[in-house]
Amino acid sequence: MAQHPERDALERKPKDQAKNAVYADKTKSRELIVKELLDTLSPERIAWLAEVSDSFRAFHQQVGAYLKALLAAE
Questions:
Q1: How many CB atoms lie within 10 A of CB 17?
Q2: What is the pTM of this model?
Q3: Which among 24, 26, 20 is positioned nearest to 2, based on CA atoms?
Q4: Contact yes or no for 48/2 (Cβ under 8 A)
Q5: Element housing 63 (H / E)
Q6: What's the number of CA atoms in the CB half-sphere (13 Å) around residue 47?
Q7: Confidence of residue 70 (pLDDT cuts 50, 70, 90)
Q8: C-alpha 63: how far from its chain's center?
Q9: pLDDT tens digit sequence for 30-69
Q10: Of 27, 31, 53, 68, which one has the greatest count of Cβ atoms within 10 A?
Q11: Cα distance between residue 61 and residue 48, in whole Å
Q12: What is the CA radius of gyration of the chain?
């Protein structure tokens, strides 16, 4: 099951350590990782990912801006 590691930036960790920190097991298949992430997706998990991953934070901000513009256009 995916976990919430310490709040160190994931980009500063070697790839295998970052993957293990997020997914709890770096040997899992991509399909299993995606299923577990979707099953555990919550506002808290999204906030945590935005806090510890610069790239996810940028993506999250882009999605938020897009949704805001989409709602304003209605």
A1: 14
A2: 0.56
A3: 24
A4: no
A5: helix 54-73
A6: 3
A7: very high
A8: 13
A9: 788 788 878 888 898 889 888 888 888 999 999 999 999 9
A10: 53
A11: 14
A12: 14
